[in-house]
Amino acid sequence: MVSVEYHDDLKEVQSDAELARLLSCEVQSAPFDRLEWWRLLSEHCSVAARLVIARNGSGAVVLPLTGSGAHLTQLSNWYTFRFRPIISPGADAIALLTTLGRDLATKSRRLTLTGLPSEEADLVAAAFRKAGWIALREQSDVNHVLPLAGRDFTAFLAGRPGKLRTTLKRKSGKVATQVLTHFDPSVWDAYEDIYAESWKPEEGSPAFLRAFAEAEGTAGRLRLGVAHDPEGRAIAAQMWTVEGGTAFIHKLAHRENARPLSPGSVLSAALFLHVIDVDKVGLVDFGTGDDPYKRDWMEQVRPRWRLDLFRPQAPGNWPILARNAARLLAARAKRG
Q1: Is the pTM of this model over 0.85?
Q2: Total structural domains within the chain
Q3: Are residues 186 and 96 in the same domain?
Q4: Are residues 97 and 9 in the same domain?
């Protein structure tokens, strides 16, 4: 027997020992899969959680959603590298997700999930189709990663583009770098000041990012890098985290007027050195986005997918489905 539950209050989930453990760092080795991440989203980014949970006594599936009423979406925002359902080890995921989909059909007519890895996109689409939903899929983004395959930093660096290696050789002696494994308020203040003078758009939620960095520092997972020019001025800063054999690159910025010193590249090299030779990670994850500079450091690109799931019986979905069908027919006609 599979039961389906809905929780809008994360404290309810925290008080459930089985779910609290499943959604903790004991089981999950990426921040985006944990209850604490969703709590920070709710607290600092005005993203209201609605967790849909299916379990049968031997396992559970948690689908973290947001929104209310007819159209629900994934519980994530611009800080989330990827989205996926959280599945207990050994659980019958397809059966649990199918039952979840059937029950959710009584409460919502449309579900949009963005940022899914390929395997999870296949799984969710198959389960919801089995539950009677229409599943439309398209690529939403890309994820740049670096599998180390046993290489140390020297071997990794030897494989970087010649232009980058030349830049590092010429500029490393002009920039002093430091990598901290704890949260330092003064360094974080420097990061925020640097970010304000960088090429980056305005930060979406500085309070979220600081709270996350503080928590990761307490847990020992934070890698906070800062670079200084010859006069001692902080000119670049980056925030990474490390866990489960993976280094996640969350944020990076440098002052525009320091660009001739290439402080971002020099600081990146210092952090790669640390996570590869000290932390011994097997993978570096550069998050989403196809920024050209990522290709200098990363070696593989993985797709991220968007699933649009519709209940075909819901009249509110018919105009959307009709427009999509017309778009597909036009695309086929154009191809020949």
Answers
A1: yes
A2: 2
A3: no
A4: yes
